[in-house]
Specification:
heterodimer, A: mainly alpha, MetI-like fold, B: 299 residues, mainly alpha
Chain lengths: 276, 299
């Protein structure tokens, strides 16, 4: 039916145009952030604003590291990222334990794990603070990282994936005399690369963006993360928008780069997480 | 007895694998619920933090005080304002964009899928900083664009109602991405044969959309509604970083109220009571939805 096809084509064009226009509106804040971050301080307050910096400068980015402590914030953020990969490993171990072992009350324990997903952060925020205070972990890196180390959702996804690994394979390795940890490290982890990739990227993004715990736990600027440092900058340099935009861009651009490389994995990760 | 120990040692592996994550979850998720419940009946504050003997049980006093706290009233009102306007907008926009993205699979569609998804993974503080600049009354891009159309300056963040709407706009922008992906996955899971059958029966495009596509997306819509609602009931970062709850507590949400009471005024007991009220609201709303869904599937 030729007329139907023409109609179909026209519809596709309209869809494309709508998408492009909407996409430009959605990306406007990003574009404005990047363009503004290269403007000198006087140009950014000009009215009407310039679309692209007339005298582009890197001074704002340099100021982040010279006048502000973004170097320290970056270091702390990277430490948190590294430590949260330890958490990822714990989640993988737990997922394997639930997927491939049998023990008493396994399903009940697993439901307990899942139940933690429903607890809103605001309820646990104050008790966790009090607990960490009792443990003497306030104002320490351990205090910032520890509460978020295990995530029920990640355990759930690891379990789902590892349950699909044939048990015969594990049994064969056992018959060959391999120990349980050897099996986990040398057999299970290599097979589970895809789920590690997805979870690894999501862990990186979450750790890079972490804000609330560092804010609550860190009293010292030497423990601030990029997010906390940026919110401090917003308060201290309230009218220096170019500097603010540079700080924001410094946080956002690494994520954009990682995202464009791993788009497929990230989208898949969220899809599996959405449609369990 | 010795056999029991032997058995435990022989079966130790599953426990070794599970223990690290499980201990952390119990310590930082499950036990805190009990602690929150207990301290919500006390007058725990900084003095109590320093020395436990300064803490005393005060029964339901915190909860009774919440009932007459005008800031808490505002927080509850604002939270429902955010939810009632924001959640439908997120669902409509993410479903609409997913339907559009489902039209094709070529490069343009892949690129724009990424563009729409981008805000979802961007740091909320960076977003708040950028939007704070866009919303600036004097130097912001939005007011400049409006001035081109001869519209006067809009006090985006300085008027209690407009500020709420501004925060909703920002949160919708950020919230579209993940839900869009969920809808897109659900759309791609609908078998082509359904559409073909409908076309053979002479169904029009809009009929296919309303009588086949959207009903088949019911599970995805339900999932998105539940998760989005729970998320929006905990609306926190946007007002926290952009308005600090102002002007005149016009943007305080329940979650922000709890944070402010707990960590700015150190009224831990009072904040814990507030957090339990929020928890109960979340549970009620979620149960209500599951109940509505049950009624829905019956016919």
């Amino acid at each position: 039916m030729p007329s139907g096809k023409a109609k179909n084509n026209a519809e596709k064009w309209i869809a494309t145009i709508l998408l492009v226009v909407g996409g430009l509106i959605v990306s406007l804040p990003f574009l404005w952030m990047i363009s503004s971050s290269f403007k000198p301080e006087n140009e950014i307050l000009q009215m009407p604003p310039t679309l692209i910096a007339e005298n582009p400068t890197l001074q704002n980015y340099i100021n982040l590291f010279t006048n502000l402590n973004f170097g320290i914030y970056l270091r702390n953020t990277l430490i948190i990222v590294l430590l949260s990969f330890v958490g990822l490993f714990f989640n993988a171990m737990a997922g394997y334990g639930f997927a491939k072992y049998h023990f008493k009350n396994k399903e009940k324990v697993f439901y307990l794990v899942l139940a933690t997903m429903m607890i809103p952060g605001q309820v646990t925020m104050i008790p966790v603070y009090l607990l960490l205070n009792e443990m003497g972990l306030i104002n320490t890196m351990a205090g910032i990282v520890l509460p978020g180390l295990a995530a029920a959702f990640s355990i759930f996804l690891f379990r789902m994936f590892m349950a699909t690994i044939p048990t015969d394979l594990i049994e064969a390795a056992r018959l060959d005399g391999a120990g349980e940890f050897y099996i986990f490290f040398r057999l299970i982890m290599p097979i589970s690369k895809p789920i590690f990739a997805v979870q690894g990227i999501l862990t990186f993004i979450a750790a890079w963006n972490s804000f609330l715990w560092p804010l609550i736990i860190a009293n010292d600027e030497s423990l601030y993360t990029l997010s906390v440092g940026l919110s401090l900058l917003k308060g201290q340099y309230a009218s220096n928008f170019a500097l603010q935009m540079a700080g924001a861009a410094f946080m956002v651009i690494p994520i954009i780069i990682i995202f464009s490389f791993f788009q497929k994995y990230i989208v898949e990760g969220f899809t599996t997480s959405g449609l369990k | 007895m010795s056999q029991l120990i032997k058995g435990a040692v022989r079966n130790r592996h599953p426990f070794i694998f599970i223990a690290p994550a499980l201990i952390i979850l119990i310590l930082f998720s499950l036990i805190p619920i009990l602690i929150a419940l207990v301290i919500s009946f006390t007058d725990m504050d900084l003095k109590g933090l320093a020395n436990w003997s300064n803490i005393s049980f005060i029964g339901f006093e915190n909860y009774i005080n919440l009932l007459s706290d005008t800031v808490f009233h505002k927080a509850v009102y604002n939270t429902f304002f955010y939810v009632i306007i924001g959640v439908p907008l997120v669902i409509i926009f993410s479903l609409g964009i997913a339907l559009l993205l489902n039209y094709g699979k070529n490069l343009i569609f892949t690129v724009f899928r990424a563009v729409y998804f981008m805000p979802a993974i961007t740091n909320i503080i960076a977003i708040a900083v950028v939007w704070g600049f866009l919303y600036n009354t004097e130097y912001g891009l939005f007011n400049y664009l409006l001035s081109l159309g001869d519209i006067g300056k809009v006090p985006w963040l300085e008027h209690p109602v407009i500020a709420k709407l501004s925060l909703i706009l920002l949160a919708v922008w950020k919230g579209i991405g993940i839900n869009m992906i969920i809808f897109l996955a659900a759309l791609q899971g609908i078998p082509q044969s359904y559409y073909e059958a409908a076309r053979i029966d002479g169904a029009k495009r809009w009929q296919i959309l309303f009588y086949i596509t959207i009903p088949l997306l019911r599970y995805a819509v339900f999932f998105v509604t539940v998760t989005t609602l729970i998320g929006w009931l905990q609306f926190f970062e946007e007002p926290f970083i952009m308005t600090r709850g102002g002007p005149l507590d016009g943007t305080v949400s329940m979650a922000l109220f709890i944070y402010q009471r707990g960590f700015q005024f150190s009224e831990f007991g009072y904040a814990a009571a507030g957090s339990f009220v929020l928890f109960i609201v979340i549970i009620i709303v979620t149960l209500l939805q599951f109940k509505l869904r049950k009624a829905d599937t019956e016919y």
